[in-house]
Amino acid sequence: MLKKLFIADCPMLECIAQDFLETTDLESIDIHGAEKIKSLPRGFDKLSHLQEIKLSRCPNLISFEESGLPTTNLRVFAIENCENYGVLPKCINNFTSLRELKVSYCSADISFPEDGFPANLTSLAISNAPKIYTSLVQWGFNRLTSLQELNISGEGCSNVVSFPEEGIGMMLPPSLTSIVIKSFENLELMCSKGLQHLTSLQRLCICYCPKLASLPEKDVLLSLENLYISDWPSLEEGCSRGKGREWSKIAHIPLVQIDMKTALKAKLAKNSGELQLICFSLCHLVKRLEQVSLQLSFNVAFQLSALGTMKLVADKRPNDTTVEVYVPLGDEALNGGHPKRAIPA
């Protein structure tokens, strides 16, 4: 009994047989690299068990308007790199089970659905969709009362100079635990007032925002466990450890990653001794490592998977041990693949 349909790298495929949609137990559809597909067959709305739809690299796919979508159990809807896809389902607000929505690098003219997004979304990712972003600000991020992860890439949003935007779009849902902001070419301000109520925020990533002058105030960063900053030249010096003008705002954060350099602080107790500081620094992209396992003399094991070479330096002193590991994380840091998650709780 077919439950998952996965189609990958079929450049000559032009259509999907209607018979597949008669498999009512189908739970997942994943289509990747079907360059000639223009539309999907009718009858998606009859797949009552369908939970996941993922589409990528289907440049001629236009919309779901004719095929319809199930509204009952759909939890994940992701569409990426489908350059001509320009219309989200009008009834998407009725997808009460939808938790993850991703619209990335589709038509720049793709617009915000008239009735908005489902309030129960827990993860929202938008890239190269200026019309959706503008309408979402006006509609109100705070309506997404269950949102935990927000990933916004601002290609085409040249008029955006602050985040959150002042006024109607200022309030973000207090449920947020992770925010990724990138590619806002004219962003100048991270509005502290719009972030101050995010007491559950654990992860903040800011990338490719060249005009951003400073970090938010320290008070809105107190709950952070991970701060990632990349391609932000004006702040590289400002966040220098111990002496940068911004360092006092971020010194308390356990994991700070600045332009491919990571400082990870952790305190672990072992018998009468204490591991006081572990620093991971990133440099020298050379080759791929599948997985590196470090078993240190104090019996603390770390698992790292990344690109590059590793250099281990142990400096033993009477009361502390400092270990430096040189291993790059690259884009994995943006997707949650940072070393901290590999440390046993």
Automatic annotation (TrEMBL):
Claim: Transcription is one of the keywords in the record: no
Organism superkingdom: Eukaryota
Keywords tagged on the record: Plant defense
Cross-referenced Gene3D superfamilies: Ribonuclease Inhibitor
An example Gene Ontology biological process: defense response
Protein name: Disease resistance protein
Organism: Gossypium gossypioides (Mexican cotton)
